[in-house]
Design brief:
Belongs to the glycosyl hydrolase 35 family. By secondary structure, the chain is of the alpha/beta class. Helix content is about 20%, strand content about 25%.
Length: about 625
């Protein structure tokens, strides 16, 4: 069997053989050798480099997710043009580099991405049901229909039959791991058909989930998560009319905050790849290049015990092409293996992206710049009852919310804020009183920060804290950080903030419900950061911004080593690099060269705990 020589500038027919044995390109059997990467996780300036890296490893196709919530951040307001949101440009680049495309537009994608790509504003409806048909929840499907209607005119000209590189469109993603609802999957397929896109379509599931829930669509091919040759053979026996492929073959794995090390480092796919190549079975490496979950978009999981597991910022994934786009030893090994089965030599490996001369620049030394407490917006109007509500209820997706109320100065007791999603620092008066983490913390960090894992928090006496008269009031402040929303499994509707009533157990054993909260929204978005007021009234109260400047003669990729800091966020020249957290394993944040300038560069750090600035060394790798 030979590989068809194709011209991606003209129309092509991609189809399935009548017996379901093969994918067909212009009527000839075609092996899909796909590597997954996500435009949202890669600076636009590096898109072409990453695509070329995939081709040089022997791929003929790129699989990509479209993250709905990255393009419709506010209901009805779409952005498919700015920065790395221009999906059409990415797909046209694939065509120009002679690469086909498997399009995975969701609406749900998982991807270790906040809420699996679903927009957080959906959760403003307290009873909404996600990932279901319009008969069950018309509000959800109306939003999905609007999203697909926005995609259709962008995607249709890029289908292979019109001269574009898109071979197939995936319907939803791993739906068998969530539910069984054929009506929902068919409704999604019909939305594409209504727009004039006839497919071909395919679905993606683990074999066990596929067999249990029969999550296929009419005439659609089947892709298998963690698929292998034996599983493909099983699917061909059970679903003989359509072809099957290994839709997610894992060369690495995802990593959560607090884990002992980066996952997937020792994975070796050589045996699986050899089998695919020998049998000419189609496959997709998830991921060939992971990139970075910049800003607040890293997702989370919940384990079998119900423990919340937020994902780190890096999506390096121990993939063959690392976070910076470099060829790893895995890459070189897999490239040689794949090349040995191909009739033509592979393209040369693209030149590596230059890194910054870290030794020449030296460590950054930030200084105190501002305080969150001096940058509080006006409180929202109090709602009836005054109980705290979720971020989504207030129309905020990411960042922080401050919940504040006033207690009698002599009050003391145990505060129950077990409904925190996801991380809270608590202050009585101007003093840090401790905090609560939804995620379990390694003991050494929990002790040093006086942090609890969803446990009641003992408050010190406000009188001891303030030393004022017994008739005065003292502020109780709970600053809540939203970390990643759960992106997989039944706990998908993961709202943020204080989700349960806050109570206090007093020294006499009585319990009171704390109401009448003032709520201050702190989204930490571009507008908020651009309008920070410099200055700090109380530099000993945690919740501080620090700033550093670095003068560069030349730019290059680099990492900011946050090992000396505790927990927070870093911006450079206004670009949000993502979260850091000293529980690791990630201690360094990737900064791509296009976000730096020759001359002066400004680094802004917000740390939830530190009141003293520490050095920030630069590095040339993730670890």
């Amino acid at each position: 069997m030979t590989t068809p020589i194709v011209n991606l500038e003209r129309g092509h027919t991609f189809s399935f053989s009548p017996d379901g044995e093969h994918f067909l390109l212009d009527g000839l059997p075609f092996q899909i050798r796909s590597g997954e990467m996500h435009p949202a996780r890669i600076p636009r300036e590096y898109w072409q480099h990453r695509i070329r890296m995939a081709r040089a490893m022997g791929m003929n196709c790129v699989a990509l997710y479209i993250m709905w919530n990255y393009h419709e951040t506010h209901r009805g307001m779409f952005d498919f043009r700015s920065g790395n949101r221009d999906i059409e440009a990415f797909i046209r680049l694939c065509r120009s580099e002679q690469m086909w495309v498997l399009l995975r537009p969701g609406p749900y994608v998982c991807a270790e991405w906040d809420l699996g790509g679903l927009p957080a504003w959906l959760l403003r409806e307290p009873d909404i049901q996600l990932r279901t048909d319009s008969a069950t929840d018309p509000r959800y499907m109306a939003a999905v229909a609007r999203y697909i209607d926005e995609l259709v005119p962008r995607i249709k000209p890029l289908m292979s039959e019109h001269g574009g590189p898109i071979l197939m469109i995936q319907i939803e993603n791993e739906f068998g791991s969530y539910a069984s609802n054929p009506a929902y999957l068919e409704e999604l397929r019909q939305l594409w058909l209504k727009g004039g896109i006839r497919g071909p379509f395919y679905t993606e599931d683990g074999l066990a989930q596929l067999e249990r829930n029969h999550t296929t669509v009419t005439g659609g091919a089947i892709a298998l998560s963690n698929g292998n040759a034996a599983q493909i053979a099983t699917v061909r026996r059970n679903f003989p009319s359509v072809p099957a492929m290994a839709g997610e073959v894992y060369p690495g794995w995802l990593t959560h905050w607090g884990e002992a090390g980066f996952a997937g480092v020792d994975y070796d796919l050589s045996s699986s790849l050899a089998t695919f190549m020998q049998a000419r079975l189609s496959f997709n490496l998830y991921v060939i290049h992971g990139g970075t979950s910049f800003s607040f978009f890293a997702g989370a999981n919940v384990d079998d015990s119900g423990n919340y597991q937020p994902d780190i910022t890096s999506y390096d994934y121990s993939a063959p092409i690392n976070e910076q786009g470099m060829a790893t030893p895995k890459y070189l090994k897999y490239r040689d293996l794949i090349a040995s089965y191909l009739p033509e030599p592979l393209p040369a490996i693209p030149d590596a992206i230059a890194t910054l001369d870290c030794a020449g620049v030296g460590a950054l030394m930030p200084t105190l710049y501002a305080s969150i407490w001096d940058n509080l917006p006006a409180a929202l109007p109090r709602e009836q009852g005054g109980e705290p509500q979720s971020f989504e209820h207030y129309g905020q997706a990411f960042g922080f919310v401050l919940y504040r109320k006033f207690l009698p100065e002599h009050a003391s007791g145990v505060l129950d804020i077990s409904g925190v999603h996801d991380y809270a620092t608590v202050f009585l008066g101007e003093q840090y009183a401790g905090g609560v983490s939804r995620a379990q913390l390694p003991r050494r960090y929990a002790r040093s920060l006086h942090m609890m894992h969803r446990a009641p928090l003992a408050l010190p006496s406000a009188r001891q804290n303030q030393g004022s008269s017994t008739d005065s009031l003292v502020s109780l402040e709970i600053l809540v950080e939203a970390m990643g929303r759960v992106n997989f499994g039944p706990a998908l509707a993961d709202r943020k903030g204080l989700l349960e009533p806050v109570t206090m157990q007093h020294v006499d054993g009585s319990v009171s419900l704390l109401e009448q909260w003032d709520v201050h929204l702190l989204p930490m978005d571009d507008t908020f950061i651009a309008n920070l007021n410099e200055g700090c009234t109380n530099p000993s109260k945690p919740g501080l911004f620090f700033k550093a400047s670095v003068l560069l003669a030349e730019v290059g990729d680099t990492w900011l080593d946050m090992s000396n800091w505790t927990k927070g966020i870093v911006w450079i020249n206004g670009h949000n690099l993502g979260r850091y957290w000293n529980i690791g394993p990630q201690k360094r944040l990737y900064c791509p060269a296009p976000w730096l300038v020759q001359g002066n560069n400004e680094v802004l750090v917000f740390d939830l705990h530190q009141i003293d600035a520490r050095p920030i060394p630069l590095a040339d790798r993730l670890y």
